[in-house]
Write a structure and sequence with these properties.
The chain has 12 helices and 11 strands. α7 (168-175) packs antiparallel against α8. It has helices spanning 10-19, 32-48, 62-67, 86-96, 110-120, 154-161, 168-175, 190-198, 203-208, 217-225, 227-237, 256-264; strands at residues 5-9, 25-26, 29-30, 53-56, 101-103, 126-129, 143-147, 150-152, 176-177, 182-183, 248-249.
Length: 272
């Protein structure tokens, strides 16, 4: 498919491509983060054209932190040897803001900005680049997700989740998400979760179905005990109801900022 827009979850991309070159140093400083990110984004620019690319960057997760105090609390900092990535990510954001469209709000995560962008461009063919499973809820006939080497369309999403992509928030409201420290309903069989979600059109129906006669008494009791957790989880993972437009900054096309960074870090193998 020829896509109208390529929307990139920048931190997710940076982490994914840092891992392969995580030991790379120049002048005793780690530079794998910059090298992996720059090289991959330039490959997308070459393939799709910089005017089609939108780089989404993380701000503070105020919406999610307002719903739960422990959001992402258990996430391990795998880059601990390198210290805080924030200044380096901000540098990359500033450099690429001259070349690509930027999606950024200091009070929102990248996935919220991506969600608003997709919802504001419902007729456009969009490729979302991210390993964040929450963003797979947007998959349909013209919106796909690239996660690593996998291109995920509607069929692939269904094969993975066993529910339609737009129902992924319902499934995750039951299942939780350990990567974001979101706890689901404990010891509830996967086949039961899938059955409940496929029978439910929305969160209200899902809650109503907690009393289905096909469920065992233990399952009914467990689901009722965790009803509030399910409702709260749904608010956390559901990205389909934003009404606001994304925060977009357009580039000025100045290539000198990226050229200077490439020279500063001695990335001789990157031709730009």
């Amino acid at each position: 498919m020829a896509y109208d827009f390529l929307v990139i979850d920048s931190y997710n991309l940076a982490y994914r491509h840092w891992w392969a070159v995580r030991d790379l140093k120049y002048n005793d400083q780690f530079v794998g983060l910059e090298y992996g990110f720059i090289k991959k984004v330039l490959s997308y620019i070459k393939k799709y054209g910089q005017e089609k690319i939108y780089l989404a960057w993380d701000g503070k997760p105020e919406r999610c932190q307002g719903l739960t105090e422990n959001y992402k609390a258990g996430r391990v900092k795998v880059n601990a040897n390198e210290g805080d990535w924030t200044p380096r990510l901000n540098k990359l954001k500033d450099v690429f803001s001259h070349l690509c469209n930027t999606l950024y709000n200091p009070s929102e995560e990248a996935d919220e900005q991506i969600a608003k962008f997709v919802l504001s461009n419902k007729e456009k063919r969009i490729l979302i680049v991210s390993g964040d499973k929450d963003l797979q809820q947007f998959i349909n006939s013209i919106v796909h997700v690239e996660s690593g080497s996998d291109l995920i369309n509607g069929e692939a999403a269904f094969n993975k989740w066993q529910v339609p992509a737009y129902k992924i928030p319902l499934y995750k409201s039951l299942d939780g998400d350990s990567s974001d420290n979101i706890k689901g309903v404990p010891r509830l069989a996967t086949k039961t979760k899938i059955k409940l979600v496929n029978m439910s059109a929305n969160i209200d129906e899902l809650i109503s179905n907690f009393s289905l006669s096909e469920l065992t008494e233990k399952e009914k009791i467990k689901l009722k005990e965790h009803e509030q957790i399910v409702l709260n989880n749904y608010k956390l993972v559901n990205l389909m109801e934003f009404k606001e437009k994304p925060d977009i900054s357009e580039p000025d096309g100045d290539k000198t900022y990226l050229s200077s960074l490439i020279n500063e870090l001695n990335f001789k193998s990157i031709v730009f």
